[in-house]
Amino acid sequence: MNLEKKLLTGIGLAAVMWVLTGCVTEPSALTGEKKSYGYTWQQELEIGKSSDRELIREMGLYPDDALSKYVTEVGERVLAQSNLREPDTPEIYRDLEFTFRVMDSPVVNAFALPGGFVYVTRGLLAHLNNEAQLAVVLGHEITHVAARHASQQALKQQWGQIGLVAGAVIGQGITGNENFADQFLGLGVSVFQMLTLKYGRDAERESDIYGVEYSAKAGYAVGESAEFFNSLGRISEKSGQRLPTWQSSHPDPGERESRINRLAMEMKQKYGDLKVGEAEYLNRIDGLVLGENPRQGVALRGKFYHPDLDFQFDVPEGWRVKNEAGRVTLVDSLGRGIVIFSSGEGNTPEDAARSFVASSQVQPIRSESSTLGGNPGYVIESVVSTSNGPVAMRNEFFTYKNSVFSFLSYASSTEIDAYRPAFEQISGSFEPIQESSIRNLQPARLKVVTADREGAFESYLSDLPYGLDKADMAIINQIAVEENVRRGQKLKLVSQ
Ligand SMILES: [Zn+2]
Questions:
Q1: Which DSSP string corresponds to 201-232?
Q2: Ligand 1 centroid to 204 CA: how many Å?
Q3: Average pLDDT over the chain, rounded to an integer
């Protein structure tokens, strides 16, 4: 988790519901023809705004203003050449302002939300080699927004409603018992489901075609981007686990690579030789954090450590840990005992408890002052009825280094006694980090170097930090491990 994400309460149960209006017919920003959408343009703007806030809380922004400004500049340059900015485009589209963001995630991904929000992760930026590739990725995402693909998809799938719920995702992908958490929280479709939404092949093809064209018009050598699509294929081959969502709707990256190549040839004939922007791009991403950032939390040898916030606590044997920007979730092997560590809302533990009760509407059966690890605290216990039966919940708020945090633990009422010792072990072991080597942990960072000799790429890779191997580095550089590099060639290596 990240210090900046202080707004997050333990679990926010307040949901924003977007009721599907039915079928809206409005002119397309790409073609001007009337098309059917699930949401009005106005609704899309609202969905974008609130989902954006949610996403920042969940994922965290990458703290590098210069980099984010650079991504915005490239995005704006491409946007200026898009159908959204043509004089005969309906005014509602022409007025749309875009927000480009760099998210603090090692996953290789780019995505868009309705209403003009485009995101790239730092993991994606590490994999791009030049500005032209970035332009094509941004152009692709701009097209999803302009073509209103999410809104079209909503209509197709007849979503009854989309609930964008703070804390909605706690159970997903980690508990192994997703319904339990889902039902406990009363979820609709979360912002994450929206992000991992598959627009469909036609929509993806449309985004590739327009994205490449906009980028070429903006002066970029779009042929460069085919290499990147090739590396996306290599990432998913290397590890199915890390299949980027961005690519998951494209079953055949090879097909896509050749499509982009074909388009690029056309563009070259139409617009001439264009900008690659390698030196500038590499200069901007020099120093970028690679892989997981241990300063934002790391599980090691039975403990969870957070060097930036200087605390640690036990992780009982067999429990899994999921560390996100706004919270740390611990789940036992059966997925039935859950502990969520997060920031509390308010200046004191009691304030935070009150705010939690108000927003979650739980009825406390016990609430009183307490201490946690020698810190002043306030504890509330409640029973929440769910469609899976009653759930016993304990929320311990406490002050640590002038901030309020909380441990929220829950299990079904029939099993709570079995889980209590583990719950107490976790929150009871909370303390400042004891070992200085852990307090001083640093993330691996990308270091751009100029090859000083000709030789195999492999020969430039020595002492890779834990979690990064030669294959990863080769993919990041869009070359093969055994491939020869030229003297003077720019390489993306690692500094630690
Ligand atoms: Zn796409």
A1: HHHHHHHHHHHHHHHHHTTB-GGGHHHHHHHH
A2: 5
A3: 82
The rounded Cα 460 to chain-centroid distance in angstroms is 31
- Together in a domain, 225 and 368: no
Ligand 1 centroid distance, CA of 265 (Å)? 21
Strands 161-165 and 110-113: unpaired
- What's the CA gap between 297 and 466, in Å, rounded? 15
Residue 110: band (very low, low, confident or very high) from pLDDT cuts 50, 70, 90: confident
Structure tokens at 430: 């909370």
> What is the distance in A from the centroid of ligand 1 to the CA of 248?
9
Q: What is the CATH number of the domain that holds 314?
A: 3.40.1000.10
Cα 246 to ligand 1 centroid, rounded to whole Å: 6
Per-residue confidence (pLDDT) for residue 75, from 0 to 100: 98
* Length, in residues, of the chain: 496
User: What is the CA(97)–ligand 1 centre distance, in A?
Assistant: 20
CA of 90 to the centre of ligand 1 (A): 24
Q: Residues 469, 430: one domain?
A: no
Q: What domain range is 483 assigned to? A: 457-495
Q: Is residue 187 part of a domain?
A: yes
CA 141 / ligand 1 centre spacing (Å): 6
